[in-house]
C-alpha cells in the first residue's frame, strides 16, 4: 500500500511526485493521457518508490487508508470531474487535496459538497513553478485543521526551507489556501509588470543594451530589491538566442498571457470593497499588451512629439531602483489587506505574518523585503492595512521623489508605467486628508437624491439642487 496518490502528471504534477518520492514516501500516480504516465516512469523516475496506475479503481485501492490523493490538474471542470470519478471508490475519512490553482469559491463549494460523502478536502496553494515543485515549493494549505493534520508531515517535508523552517503552514479554513495563492499570483503579476516597466525605461530612455540592463538587474538583486523575479529577470537579459547570439528577449512577441488568478484577485478586491488598483493595473497591463494589432495602428496615428530629455543615467537607475521598492511595497500591502479582509469576511482565520513567512522561500514572489513587512505587521496585529504604520509611510516617503521622477520620465517618453503611476496615486489617495469625494457625493445627491453627510453636523442630508 502506498502512502499517497497523485493524479495529473503535467509540469507541476510530475515534479511534485518526484519531490514526494525523494522524501521517502511511496506514491501511486495516474494521468488522463496514459502515454504521459509511461514516459514519466521511463524517463524521470529513478530510485523513487513511485507506482503507475491506469485506472481510478486500482489507483485508489493501492493507497493506505485513509487515502490521500493529490489532484494536480487544470483548475475548473477537470477538478469537479475527477472528484466525481473518485467518489465511488472513496470511503469515510479519505482525503482529496487539490494542488492546482483553483478559484477559492470553488474550493469552499467542494468542501461543503463533500461533507455529504464524509470525504475530506484540502485546497492546497502551491507556488514555485517546476523547479519549486521538485526541490521545495511554498505550500498554502486550507481546509479543516484536522484534514491538514493528516498530511502535515508530508507537506512539511516536501516544502522549501528558510532558516530551517518549512515554507508551509496551515493557512486557515475552507478555501483560505487557494485564496492566499490567488493573492500571491496577483502580487506576482504586479512585480513582473513593475520590473518590465523599468526594463522599458532603461532600453527606450537610457538606450541600454540587454546586457547592461541585465547588469543593473543583477546589482539590484544583490541589494534591497533581491527577489526571485529580479534574479530570473537578469538571467533572461543575459540569455542569447541560439540562432543569432542576440538577446532572446528581443525576439519574444510582446503579448502577455494569463490564466485567471490575477483577474480573480481584482474581481475579489471589488467584491470585498478593498482598493487594490496596482493589482488590477497588473492585469490591465497584460490585457493592453494583448491588443498588439491595435497598438501598431494607434502608434502610427498618434504623433509622439520628441522631447529632448537628457537623462542622467546614474540618477535614473538609482530612481528606478527606489521606485521598484515603492511599487513592490504597495503591491504587498494591497495583497495583505485583501487577505486580512477576506479572513474576517469569510472566517478564514488567516495569520498574514505567517503567510508572508511561507512566501520567503520556494515561491515566485519570494523577496528580501518580506522580512521588513513581517516586522511591520508584528508591530500591530490588529491593523488590517499595514500601510497604516509609521515605518511604512517613512519607507514610502523615502522613495516618493524617485517614483515621481520615473513616472514623469515615462510620460515624457510616452512609455506606459501602469504600476508606477497607479501605486503612486494609490499612496496619494491614502495620505490625502480631504479628498474630492465631497463633490462626488454632491453629484450623487443632485441626480439621484442619494443623500450625503456633512462635516459640520451629524445626520443624513438631501438638497433640492435645482
Ligand atoms: P499542465 O498543463 O502541465 O498539466 C495539466 C494536467 O492536467 C495534465 O496532467 C492533464 O492531463 C491534466 N488534465 C487536464 Br488539462 N484536463 C483534465 C481532465 N479533464 N481530467 C483529468 N486530467 C486533466 O499544468 P501544470 O502547469 O502542471 O498545472 C497543474 C495545476 O497546477 C494547474 O491548476 C495550475 O494552474 C497549477 N499551478 C501551476 C504552476 C506552474 O508554474 N505551472 C504553479 C502553481 C500551480 P493530460 O496529460 O491527459 O493532458
TrEMBL record:
Pathway: Carbohydrate degradation; pentose phosphate pathway; D-ribulose 5-phosphate from D-glucose 6-phosphate (oxidative stage): step 3/3. Its EC number is 1.1.1.44. Keywords: Gluconate utilization, NADP, Oxidoreductase, Pentose shunt. The keyword Oxidoreductase applies. PROSITE patterns: 6PGD. Residues 177-466 form the 6-phosphogluconate dehydrogenase C-terminal domain. The keyword Cell division does not apply. Substrate binds at residues 101, 127-129, 184-185, 189, 259, 286, 444, 450. The active site is at 181 (proton acceptor), 188 (proton donor). GO terms for biological process: D-gluconate metabolic process; pentose-phosphate shunt. It catalyses: 6-phospho-D-gluconate + NADP(+) = D-ribulose 5-phosphate + CO2 + NADPH. One of its GO terms (molecular function) is NADP binding. SMART domains: 6PGD. Homodimer. Belongs to the 6-phosphogluconate dehydrogenase family. Catalyzes the oxidative decarboxylation of 6-phosphogluconate to ribulose 5-phosphate and CO(2), with concomitant reduction of NADP to NADPH. This is 6-phosphogluconate dehydrogenase, decarboxylating.
Amino acid at each position: 500500500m502506498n502512502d499517497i496518490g497523485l493524479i495529473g502528471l503535467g509540469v507541476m504534477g510530475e515534479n511534485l511526485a518526484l519531490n514526494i518520492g525523494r522524501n521517502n514516501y511511496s506514491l501511486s500516480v495516474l494521468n488522463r493521457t496514459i502515454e504521459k504516465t509511461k514516459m514519466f516512469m521511463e524517463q524521470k523516475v529513478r530510485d523513487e518508490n513511485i507506482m503507475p496506475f491506469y485506472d481510478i479503481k486500482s489507483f485508489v485501492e493501492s493507497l493506505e487508508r485513509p487515502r490521500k490523493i493529490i489532484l494536480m490538474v487544470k483548475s475548473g471542470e477537470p477538478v469537479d470531474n475527477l472528484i466525481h470519478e473518485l467518489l465511488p471508490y472513496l470511503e469515510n475519512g479519505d482525503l482529496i487535496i487539490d494542488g492546482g490553482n483553483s478559484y477559492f469559491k470553488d474550493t469552499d463549494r467542494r468542501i461543503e459538497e463533500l461533507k455529504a460523502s464524509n470525504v475530506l478536502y484540502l485546497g492546497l496553494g502551491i507556488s514555485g513553478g517546476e523547479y519549486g515543485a521538485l526541490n521545495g515549493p511554498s505550500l498554502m494549505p486550507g481546509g479543516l485543521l484536522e484534514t491538514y493534520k493528516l498530511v502535515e508531515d508530508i507537506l512539511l517535508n516536501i516544502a522549501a526551507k528558510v532558516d530551517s523552517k518549512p515554507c508551509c503552514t496551515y493557512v486557515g479554513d475552507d478555501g483560505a489556501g487557494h485564496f492566499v495563492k490567488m493573492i500571491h499570483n496577483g502580487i506576482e503579476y504586479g512585480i513582473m509588470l513593475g520590473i518590465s516597466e523599468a526594463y522599458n525605461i532603461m532600453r527606450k530612455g537610457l538606450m541600454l543594451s540587454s546586457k547592461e540592463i541585465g547588469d543593473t538587474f543583477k546589482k539590484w538583486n544583490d541589494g534591497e530589491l533581491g527577489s526571485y523575479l529580479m534574479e530570473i529577470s537578469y538571467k533572461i537579459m543575459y540569455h542569447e538566442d541560439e540562432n543569432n547570439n542576440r538577446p532572446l528577449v528581443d525576439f519574444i512577441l510582446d503579448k502577455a498571457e494569463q490564466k485567471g488568478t490575477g483577474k480573480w484577485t481584482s474581481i475579489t478586491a471589488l467584491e470585498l470593497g478593498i482598493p487594490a488598483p496596482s493589482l488590477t493595473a497588473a492585469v490591465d497591463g497584460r490585457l493592453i499588451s494583448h491588443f498588439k494589432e491595435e497598438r501598431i495602428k494607434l502608434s502610427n496615428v498618434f504623433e509622439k512629439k520628441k522631447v529632448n530629455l537628457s537623462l542622467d543615467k546614474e540618477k535614473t537607475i538609482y530612481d528606478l531602483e527606489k521606485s521598484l521598492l515603492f511599487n513592490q511595497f504597495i503591491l504587498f500591502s494591497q495583497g495583505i489587506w485583501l487577505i486580512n479582509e477576506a479572513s474576517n469576511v469569510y472566517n478564514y482565520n488567516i495569520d498574514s505574518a505567517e503567510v508572508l513567512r511561507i512566501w520567503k522561500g520556494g515561491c515566485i514572489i519570494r523577496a528580501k523585503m518580506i522580512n521588513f513587512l513581517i516586522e511591520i505587521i508584528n508591530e500591530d496585529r490588529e491593523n488590517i492595512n499595514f500601510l497604516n504604520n509609521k515605518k511604512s509611510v517613512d519607507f514610502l516617503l523615502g522613495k516618493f521623489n524617485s517614483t515621481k521622477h520615473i513616472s514623469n520620465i515615462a510620460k515624457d517618453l510616452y512609455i506606459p508605467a501602469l504600476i508606477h503611476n497607479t501605486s503612486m496615486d494609490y499612496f496619494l489617495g491614502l495620505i490625502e486628508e480631504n479628498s474630492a469625494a465631497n463633490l462626488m457625493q454632491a453629484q450623487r445627491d443632485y441626480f439621484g437624491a442619494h443623500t450625503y453627510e456633512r462635516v459640520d453636523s451629524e445626520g443624513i442630508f438631501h438638497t433640492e439642487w435645482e
